[in-house]
Task: structure prediction
Amino acid sequence: MIKIKNFKNYVQHYAPWYIAVGAIMAIAAGIAIDEHHMIFSYAIVVCLNCIGLG
Amino acid sequence: MKLQRIQRLSQIISTVLYNGYFPGLWMGVIYQGVLKYIPCPGLNCYSCPAALLSCPIGALQLTIAYGKFHIPLYIAGFVSFIGAIVGRMVCGWACPFGLLQDIAYKIRSPKISVPHRIQQMRYIILIFGVILFALIKQEPWFCKMLCPAGTLEAGFPIIALNAYLHEQIGVLFIIKVGFLVLFCIWMVVSKRPFCRVFCPLGTLYSFFNRISLITLTFDASKCSRCGLCFKTCPMELSVQNGGTLSTQCIRCLRCMRCPEGAVRIVWRSTVPCTTQRRLHSPSGEAIQRCVTVKN
Result:
């Protein structure tokens, strides 16, 4: 069993892996609720309002 | 090839890849293909006629403003994934606006440094300008009101290529142009002012700098205090004072030009440290923890 003497060090070593896995799950969840399609549908329109015109 | 040349090449290639829809530049219409589903890692306006990918900050605001649950899972996941791997490296290697600032700073002029206190403004921009105002106003407020990258990459080309839009130019656009001019002047006299004071995307990536898999280490015992790292750093960070783990470090790796080899890029070990070794300056002051020490 690994005895962790310093929690901060443990977090610094494992956190990026946990975050990367969590991030992939978040991307999958976003795709599942069609977020990417919503972004796409706005991004393909020349959004004049979005760039300070109109 | 020198590391700095590789970095510049990477910046140019990423700018071209993000803006690879060249027909848009003479037809004045934006790309409508499936690549727009994918956000680009750097700050690049998706309303630019040549843009192939989406802007993560624009997409983040769209999801907050119009999304089903107002929680930007897709974009947050994308930014977190990149941040967890490379931290803020994208700012140094793959951001078109970063490239513009690096080139602008080469223009001969009197140079001034960016005061440390105003660098905290980027958190206010992120929290209020990008997240809260998008939620309250139900619109991409940052893009509409502030973003100088959008004015440069989308506003100007779209107006230039579509004559019927000239009458749409109002006070807001003029204010935005003024804002862009202000930043253009500032980036000539200061190193990367937009990244340090304003950029919400860089601020998001900066949260991962301390824990990212690719990180920088500094060995104080090798440091001869020549000051080369500070002179070459585009963010004006002091490596001796923990600059390599700073939220402002963009991992451009210019500090690796250190003749003593005191700065190294490392892949963070997956084995947890059970001890910590503190590196000390000649005066005995603790400088920075070494992250690769293990028992």
In short: Chain A touches chain B through 46 residues (CB under 8 Å). Chain A has one domain: 7-51. The longest helix of chain A spans residues 7-32. DSSP finds two helices and no strands in chain A.
